[in-house]
Structure formats: C-alpha cells, structure tokens
Design a protein that fits this description.
By secondary structure, the chain is α+β, with helices and mostly antiparallel strands. It contains 2 helices and 4 strands. It has a single domain, classed as Alpha-Beta Plaits (2-Layer Sandwich), CATH 3.30.70.100. About 30% of the residues lie in helices and about 40% in strands. The protein is globular and about 35 Å long.
C-alpha cells in the first residue's frame, strides 16, 4: 500500500531548484513519486511503504533547500 506525505520547501526560485529537489528526494529508498510545485513550495512524496521524514529532510537539504515542518498525509 502506498503512502503520501506533503511538505513545504523554502528557498526554491526556479525550475532548476525544482529539478534538484526532485532528483534528491527520488533517491530516498522506497519513494515512488515526487511532485514539487515551485509557486507554493509544496512537495508531495509517494512511497511504497512508510515515509521517513528525516530522510526526506536530508534529501531536501542535500539539494540546498530547507524543509519547513514535517510531512502529513492528506
């Protein structure tokens, strides 16, 4: 069963920023889909199992941005 979490990423200003976040988060184990919205900073992550908020935060920081708050399942 897949799970979805929504986060807010700060610091993104362009399409390259979006691509960087998508690339890093996609590499997190178990992640099956990543959707990033530049205008709102919204990051929606879908995984095949439980989503590790710490791993998502580390991936976003590796891309050079900040994750605000923790994930939530809509």
């Amino acid at each position: 069963m897949s799970q979805t979490s929504t986060y807010t990423v700060s610091g993104m200003t362009c399409a390259h920023c979006v691509a960087s976040v998508q690339e890093e988060v996609t590499e997190v184990a178990g992640i099956s889909d990543v959707d990033v919205d530049l205008a709102s900073g919204r990051l929606v992550v879908t995984a095949v199992g439980p989503i590790d908020d710490d791993a998502i935060q580390a991936a976003v920081e590796e891309a050079g941005y900040q994750l605000e708050g923790t994930g939530s399942t809509p």
